[in-house]
Amino acid sequence: MQKLNLPEIDAKLKKEEGKVWIFDMIRKKYVVLTPEEWVRQHFIHFLIHELKYPKSLFRIESSLTYNKLQKRSDILIFDRDGKPWMLVECKSADIRLSQNAFNQVAVYNMTVNAKYIAVSNGRMHFCCEAAKEGEKASFLEVFPEFG
């Protein structure tokens, strides 16, 4: 897997059925290791260990419906009141972050209504305060403190 612009993690890997699997500490199970999953696992560890976001408030690949279509969000973090606080979209490290990635997370957030939205490909990471109706999203210099 590619080197990322995130702290190294002590990834628990196993090989089974001809595939490599990585342990997801949030879902508490092994999942197939894809390039996107490699980024997601590193980003989860970054948010929890570096930024001190509470592990118990994470949900991974949660289902959502947009325009009658079933979609899945990569990472959803709730505030202490159980309301969506941050929605994160992860891309493979070899995918250039473009407007499409931001559009995707913004569209998902129309259903989720999180305060913050973020996008990462493991090399670059962007976070913004979600746009309120009639306004533009405002990009942040650093990820917000969980508070």
Précis, in short:
It contains two helices and nine strands; from the N terminus they run E-E-E-H-E-E-E-H-E-E-E. With 147 residues, the chain is α+β, with helices and mostly antiparallel strands. The strands form two sheets. The chain has a six-stranded mixed sheet with strand order 4-5-6-7-8-9, with helices on both faces. A three-stranded antiparallel sheet has the order 1-2-3, covered by helices on one side.
Q: Give the overall silhouette.
A: globular
SS elements, strand count: 9
- Which strand order spans the largest sheet, edge to edge or round the barrel? 4-5-6-7-8-9
Which radius of gyration do the C-alpha atoms yield?
15 Å
Strand content: 35-45%
